[in-house]
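Posting this for the archive.
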Amino acid sequence: MRYGQFAFGALAIGAVLAAWWAVTALGMVSPFILPSPPAVIEAAQRLSDGYLGASLLAHLEASLSVVLSGYLAAALIGVPLGILMAWARPVEILFGPLVSLLRPIPPPAWIPLAILWFGIDLTGKTFVVFVSAITPCLINAYVAIKEVPPHLIGTARTLGAGQAALLFRVAIPAGLPMIATGLRIALGSAWATVVAAELVVATAGFGFVIMNGYRNVESDVMAVGMIAVALLGFAMNLLFRAMEKRIIPWGEHE
């Protein structure tokens, strides 16, 4: 089944690449709108030597440093807070209204305030990534604990388990698959948000590359930045899934 899914996925990607090559090779689309695959490869080679004072590796490091710092902060705060809100009613009463109030605000809406509060350095972009990643971390952790089967809690109580044992030895292990799903969703949200933040203000990073390609009317440079973002996001998702299967073998994995 997995090989079949992989084959169909590879076929879909191959079809898109073939269509891309065909429409550009036949001159059906202007290269200013859609660059050809050879032009994108050439642009990638140029960017590997350096683009606007930074190498391609430096742009990668700039984006990853923002993503990882904001994502880790969101995970370290969001997951425990979501668990406590689900487990302790007073914590839910205290933080529930605040979460409900802030949750509908889209992460890019925080970018202007982040610039005013923290400037254009790492802290401002990290804050925006944190805001985007904390919601799935918190919500999934909350739902994971709330949906722990009652018979598991009841059985543990009859065996003499206290509140701490119920939480750490029953509820959290049972909810780990859903918590991990929230962490994986948060990672994708963090990656997408850092690109959005770099599109607005940055001195390095893939969003910076895409925006400067637009400003300089270099569609091939824009394409290189977008493809790099897609490939890295795909790789991070695969890595996370592999770690999830190893750490949480009792979860339901696709």
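Residues 67-247 form a domain with the MetI-like fold fold (CATH 1.10.3720.10). The chain has one domain: 67-247.
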